Amino acid sequence: MAIKILITSGPTREYIDPVRFISNASSGKMGKALVEAALKQKCEVIVVKGPSAVEIKNTKNCKVIDVISTKDMLSAVKENLKFADIFIGAAAVSDYRPAIVAKNKIKKKNVGSNTITVKLVKNPDIIKYVSLHKKKQVVVGFALETKNLISYAKTKLKEKKLDMIVANDSSTISSKNSAPTLIFKNGNIKKLNLVSKEKVAKEIINESIGIFKTIKTC
Amino acid sequence: MAIKILITSGPTREYIDPVRFISNASSGKMGKALVEAALKQKCEVIVVKGPSAVEIKNTKNCKVIDVISTKDMLSAVKENLKFADIFIGAAAVSDYRPAIVAKNKIKKKNVGSNTITVKLVKNPDIIKYVSLHKKKQVVVGFALETKNLISYAKTKLKEKKLDMIVANDSSTISSKNSAPTLIFKNGNIKKLNLVSKEKVAKEIINESIGIFKTIKTC
User: What is the mean pLDDT of chain B?
Assistant: First the structure.
């Protein structure tokens, strides 16, 4: 039977009002590359995709679920986790969302105060949910930092009980290439050279399948 | 001599930290359609383009200036306004930006308060700058609202001393089509049916050129 992989991809958006939102520059290219690498390995894929210009086709072996916010992404993950052998959280989700979403576009004030204050609340943590509710699934996370990358990534790997984490510095966002460090549960570290996201994706998929097969045969 | 048109296009982004930003879903499709319609009318175009997946080619008659924030967009407009006969502000600029931009990615707090507060300050008003500093230029603005659209648009037309305003409801963002109302300085109103952004762009360019020629011959 085909190995089933659940992938999250792209950014999420958290609306302040019907027009403005908080997001990030994630292009969704890594998610798409992961989907393609998984399909090449004859896996079945479900991809939960935040809004980006990258298009992923719905096919017999690839189901695409479009979402906007982190909460929507979590709902789709909750519904589909049970079908997965491997979960790869490649989405750059928004950690925070506005506490209140204005019903109408907030008008620019022309009199009085020049400032407005937006209160943000923490979003649910998707990968934490997956780790708490996983059965036999292999769980792969991503870390993106502007400083202390490897140390933060190792902490995240441990705290979120991941099997592998892909550590990227922030230059990878929107870029065609990436030079991540793969850090494994068993302490192994694999630094990839600056290569295309397609090559990185192939590596991540192959490593994930490798871990899945090891667990399965235990 | 060719008529020169300065166009702003796409959204702008206002960074909270090196990863997160505030923006909107403007696709830049209207800006691109305006550029193409202007080039078909043998105009020379300078387009100041905020980040979006839409690509506009730099050619002999079309200079593309890429920008990120509203302040960057204003700087590019300031430098290029003097070359223009017509200014079309089609960009969906961010009205507000974070008062402070964090140097490093803000870490999600795992202890203590679940909320963070972002203080936003008003951005400079690009179309107001153009209206205050214009000489003979025709100035065309856009209005996008979720309620009281026509009334807000008429107020903006008057306050910003525009020659024409294109009033859209918020469903037009990211869409291929649009059904705007064109409102003119002389009080005329022209409601367009739901048509492609290419058709709307052609209409806007033709009307703008018409106004420019009328002014020129006065």
Answer: 93
